[in-house]
């Protein structure tokens, strides 16, 4: 199985995340910083803070997504990247994740796309425009040729060029592709490397890192999960 972050990695990440929160002037940010530190260092003896900004809680959710991807029956898979919305710097905390998910699902329905997919929502910092690009990565299972064609039609209806990209997932790459779909950290970008089987992380500048920390602290990690075509059962889904 793909190796997720070690406990040592989590303790290194939580310092950066807590520092970003403590630079914030928003209410509850200091509380959130204390919570994620207590969670990662296990000061509460098994207590989990349940915040998306927490490296430990994020890892737990990423592991669940990985297990879903490995357990779902399929013969082939593709990585589908969809660009959902551009948000100006300073406005990220107002982004409505549930509305973005609902709107994208409706676009797929209107386009006749019937794919089943597992993935998550992420934010990417675009320094050239000082804006956030909210996007989704999905592992589409047994994507049919007609759905590939219909995805192209859906992409044409969106404002951003190449709004939807489909890439094949090679044999043996499913595990680290699943972790690439949901990262939930303070980074500029991340790319998977087949040889090292790890995701490379690049720390983002101070001001956008603080805004992203505020945004993540306002959500649980499960808020960023984005299954399509599967029935949810609480914290799980029906894979069959």
Q: Please give the number of β-strands.
A: 8
Residue share in helix = 25-40%
| Count of helical stretches | 7
Shape: globular
**Average pLDDT value?**
88
Structural class: alpha+beta
Give the percentage of residues in beta strands. Answer: 15-25%
Task: Enumerate the strands of the largest sheet in spatial order, edge to edge or round the barrel.
Answer: 2-3-1-4
From the alpha carbons, calculate the radius of gyration and give it in angstroms.
18 Å
- Main sheet, how many strands, which sense, barrel? 4 strands, antiparallel
Verbal overview:
- The two termini are 22 Å apart.
- It is built from 7 helices and 8 strands.
- The longest helix is centred in the first third of the chain and has 17 residues, at 55-71.
- With 240 residues, the protein is of the alpha+beta class.
- The strands form 3 sheets. It has a 4-stranded antiparallel sheet with strand order 2-3-1-4.
- The radius of gyration is 18 Å and the shape is globular.
- Helix 1 packs antiparallel against helix 2, helix 1 packs across helix 7 (206-217) and helix 3 (55-71) packs across helix 6.
- The chain has one domain (7-237).
Labels describing this entry:
single chain; 240 residues; alpha+beta; 4-stranded antiparallel β-sheet; two-stranded antiparallel ribbon
């Amino acid at each position: 199985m793909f190796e997720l972050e070690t406990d040592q990695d989590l303790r290194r990440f939580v310092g950066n995340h807590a520092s970003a929160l403590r630079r914030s002037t928003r209410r509850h940010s200091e509380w959130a910083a204390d919570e994620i530190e207590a969670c990662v260092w296990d000061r509460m003896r098994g207590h989990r803070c349940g915040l998306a900004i927490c490296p430990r809680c994020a890892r737990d959710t990423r592991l669940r997504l990985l297990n879903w991807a490995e357990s779902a029956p399929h013969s082939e898979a593709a990585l589908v990247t969809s660009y959902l919305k551009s948000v100006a710097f300073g406005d990220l905390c107002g982004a409505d994740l549930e509305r973005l998910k609902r709107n994208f699902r409706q676009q797929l329905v209107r386009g006749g796309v019937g794919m089943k997919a597992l993935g998550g929502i992420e934010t990417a910092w675009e320094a050239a425009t000082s804006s956030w690009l909210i996007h989704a990565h999905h592992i589409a299972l047994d994507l049919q040729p007609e759905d590939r064609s219909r995805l192209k039609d859906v992409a044409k209806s969106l404002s951003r060029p190449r709004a939807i990209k489909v890439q094949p997932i090679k044999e043996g790459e499913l595990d680290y592709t699943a972790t690439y779909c949901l990262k939930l950290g303070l980074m500029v970008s991340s790319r998977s490397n087949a040889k090292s089987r790890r995701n490379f992380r690049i720390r983002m500048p101070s001001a956008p890192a603080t805004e992203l920390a505020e945004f993540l602290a306002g959500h649980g990690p499960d808020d960023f999960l984005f299954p399509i075509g599967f029935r949810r059962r609480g914290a799980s889904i029906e894979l069959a």
